[in-house]
Amino acid sequence: MRLSLPLFLLSFAPSLSTSSSPTIPHSPSADAASSIVAQMTTEEKYSLLNGIGWSSHMGQDDGYYIGNEPAVPRLNIPSLNMQDAAQGFRTTDIRQIGQVTAWPCSLAVAGTWDAELAETWGAALGDEHRGKGANVILGPSVNVHRVAVGGRNAEYISGEEPKLGEVMAASYVTGVQSRGVLAVAKHFALNNQETNRNTVDSHASERSMHEVYYKPFAAAIEAGVASFMCAYNLVNGTHACGNSDLLSRDLKGRLNFEGFVMSDWWAVHDAGYEDAGLDMDMPGTDSYFSADNLSAADDGRVDDMVTRVLAAMIRSGLMSADPSAPAPFPPLCEIPGGCDDLMFNATVRTPEHVALARQIAADSVALLKNENDVLPITPDKVKTIAVVGSACDPSNHKEEMLKVWNLGNFFVMGGSGRVIPDDPISVLRGIKERAAQDGIEVVESVGSTDSLAAAKRAMAKADLVVTCGATTATEGADRSSLSVDQDSFLQSVTAAAAEMGKPVAVLLTTPGSAVVSSFDAGAAALLNMFLGGEQLGSAYADVLFGDTPPSGKLPVTFPLAAADATAPCESNPCEYGEGLEVAWRGLGGKDVGYPFGHGLGYTQFGYAWGEEPAVAEGGGLRFSVSVSNAGERAGREVPQVYLAFPQGAGEPEMQLKAFAKTGALQAGEAQLLEFEVSAVELAVWDEEAAGWSAVEGEFEVRVGSSSRDIRLSAPVQV
Ligand SMILES: *[C@@H]1O[C@H](CO)[C@@H](O)[C@H](O)[C@H]1NC(C)=O
Ligand SMILES: *[C@@H]1O[C@H](CO)[C@@H](O)[C@H](O)[C@H]1NC(C)=O
Ligand SMILES: *[C@@H]1O[C@H](CO)[C@@H](O)[C@H](O)[C@H]1NC(C)=O
């Protein structure tokens, strides 16, 4: 594609490399790995490339994880013990329930817009995995949401913007790998829907691949991620795990990934995928990478595959570069056979982790509206709260969930990302515990079927009504709608409350975008938390009572109607015809329910430039913004930096390029935040040159409290 602007090819930084053929890495860790490979027998090499341990029973045999590679004790190579991921250590056995933390989903972490918190979470995940004997976590899941009903959106830590995903993915990887656990960026690439997920053939332009869909993956690489997992879908007519343009040219070549690529479970469909760039077949029971099959592979390529695996293990501290030296971490249990005690007996859910799960959930809450400052709840305004609706006290049905791998509920998603909580805290329980401290009475109507008459009886006694709307999602299927399951009940409750003159706060639990138009007008306050895990109700209470002022921002759009959002493809090819106008970016001219980046506090914030945007050394932009608390209560704000490219650059009207989260600001307090937008952020992908091209001209920097609440803007000539 030709751009009508002066362009010059950027070639000064490794991340801007335009090399197109994969090179065998020559880092110190790769060299150390090569010397270990030189000591390995052919059988030992093959054994590291072909997964073991999977069975049909919930996917996991006793003594095995979700996937494993056996150890090579002779060379001090530990086994790889792999476990999912998206909400913590995956529970597949009843004994594990309660031994591990059921964290908020990854999308909730994205909703905090807090890079430091994401890294702290990553470290805690690393500790729990390691404590259970797993040294590989099958995350982060980083695909940018394209399809609002996407069944795995709750797992995807990028939300609708690559920049959010870049920051969150890098923080996660850094946190996890600091604990000697390998992280796996997935699902590469264009895994954007669950409908026909094994046969959908995604076609995106190279430019949108590099500018949107690859970006969080590239950030994971820069953070040192050990491994990639290729996706189920096809890209340009070829399955992702056998696609050499995707894995060799783009991932290992243009993105310079030096780690190893594992397949998703059964995402290999033919022999010879090693030629395309796949390094490890998981779960391996399909035997495409059996010793027999691999004996037909090129020996140099096999050595490259094993080198990549071992180098990643060395880099992440899982084993020593010197095979005669002991591992830097205490040895793990070894597959096969030795892990039962850790897997089924070790409790790694600590009070610190429970507190962190609660903090993440609370910090993820987006306050979408708060008319007449109905929140926070204070004893001078509220003597009695009515909690109405079954979704405020949903059941957890552990046994049923254990039987059906992809059953979700109103605390956790279904599928491989699921962590079944033992005794999750509902909204009702969270509110009751907190209200008691203030002597506030709680009346309830939360039976398993929603009854308006019963709800009205409770509401009649209250100064404030709290009601809940929830839905869940699962791997393997897209959501059938964007509504919450109680949509019509919420309509009736808000209408009845209006007649009774009672303010209503609606608390949502969602796995992604939601349409709230039918009850929004009747709600005085509206809050969203993505599937919040075991501490959901306590976290909601923290926010409602103002102990933790709301500071989350939507990482997705809440459209007015489902039809406004991109629907999954039903047939092939699946053309990504919107190009760079992905998700919220394509809704520019349209009214939405709540826009990308939206979330209020219990206070208001003022914005002022510190230093106005200017071109920095190295070609990027530099500026600072002072955010001040102009209201009466404490709060935290997330100033978001959007960039508008010069006319004619072919870019969306604006895109997120940076953000930061303030500390807790007391009334009257201000914080100066420094921003840098690097040169590559001002570049576009030039398909002909297969590299980044800088754009010159007048950019506009827009700093806002959401994508539709821009507070500062300044032109800058680049
Ligand atoms: C997919 O096809 C497009 C259009 O032909 C091409 O530009 C791009 O390089 C291909 N990408 C991959 C990963 O195959
Ligand atoms: C490799 O394995 C697959 C699945 O087991 C089998 O169908 C195929 O024929 C094998 N190919 C070679 C070259 O051995
Ligand atoms: C778990 O701990 C109990 C009690 O210490 C012990 O009897 C049992 O053998 C352990 N289970 C496994 C699988 O190691």
Features:
29 strands, Immunoglobulin-like, disordered N terminus, 19 helices, 3 domains, Rossmann fold, alpha/beta, 718 residues, 6-stranded mixed β-sheet, binds 2-acetamido-2-deoxy-beta-D-glucopyranose, TIM Barrel, single chain
> Which ligands are bound?
2-acetamido-2-deoxy-beta-D-glucopyranose
Structural class: alpha/beta
The chain-level mean pLDDT equals 94
Total number of domains:
3
Compute the CA-based radius of gyration: 25 Å
- Please count the helical segments: 19
CATH homologous superfamily label of the largest domain: Glycoside hydrolase, family 3, N-terminal domain
Query: Separation of termini?
Result: 22 Å
**DSSP strand tally:** 29
Envelope shape: globular
Low-confidence stretches: 1-22
How much strand content do the residues show? 15-25%
Write the layout of secondary structure elements.
Layout: E1 7-9, H1 28-37, H2 42-47, E2 67-69, E3 80-83, H3 106-112, H4 115-131, E4 136-137, H5 162-177, E5 182-188, E6 201-203, H6 206-213, H7 215-222, E7 227-230, E8 234-235, E9 238-239, H8 244-254, E10 260-263, H9 273-276, H10 291-294, H11 299-315, H12 340-345, H13 351-363, E11 366-370, E12 384-388, H14 398-403, H15 427-437, E13 441-445, H16 452-460, E14 464-470, H17 487-500, E15 504-510, H18 517-520, E16 525-530, H19 536-544, E17 558-559, E18 574-575, E19 592-594, E20 605-609, E21 614-615, E22 621-629, E23 640-644, E24 655-659, E25 670-677, E26 683-686, E27 691-695, E28 698-706, E29 709-717
Parallel strand pairs: 3-4, 4-5, 5-7, 6-8, 6-18, 7-10, 12-13, 12-14, 14-15, 15-16
Antiparallel strand pairs: 1-27, 2-3, 8-9, 11-16, 17-19, 20-22, 21-22, 22-25, 23-24, 23-28, 26-27, 28-29
Helix pairs in contact: 1-11, 4-5, 5-7, 13-19, 15-19, 16-17
